[in-house]
Amino acid sequence: MEYVRAERKDSPEIIGLVREVWKEYDCILNIDIEERHLLDPGEHFRGKGGDFWIVREKGILVATAGLSIEEDTAEMKTLYVRKDARGRGLGTKLTNLALETAKERGAKSIELWSDTRFVDAHRMYERLGFVRFGERDLFDHNNTREYGYRRHI
What we know:
Number of helices: 4
CATH architecture: 3-Layer(aba) Sandwich
Strand order of the largest sheet: 1-2-3-4-5-7-6
Structural class: alpha+beta
CATH topology: Aminopeptidase
Strand content: 25-35%
Number of strands: 7
Radius of gyration: 14 Å
CATH superfamily: Gcn5-related N-acetyltransferase (GNAT)
């Protein structure tokens, strides 16, 4: 496995992975109206004090995660693992990388929002010490509801 910082050239593969995961949950990614940070996630997240990582296995993109930091609060976003790569700890490793990076950069806590349909991800977050703190409706074309999770660092 190769964990690297995302570059602009990785964007089409990143968008493809996110689209693939969303499709599993009968959701459609419309990059023109949502998740526009995926067009250049490395620049987007590094411009917000964080970073964006991708994981490749034998040259194939299998996972992503982003981190932004504002003052002493970090936000993790875009944690996705390809279906055939799940169950091998990639989500945990990327979450721990985000936690370590946030701490190194002065964050005191980290938050994330996760679609209510991503039950396996919720179990992982809770296992890693995140606590659910809220719920919101995005009022989008995918009928997205999300749970908020927070953890002190």
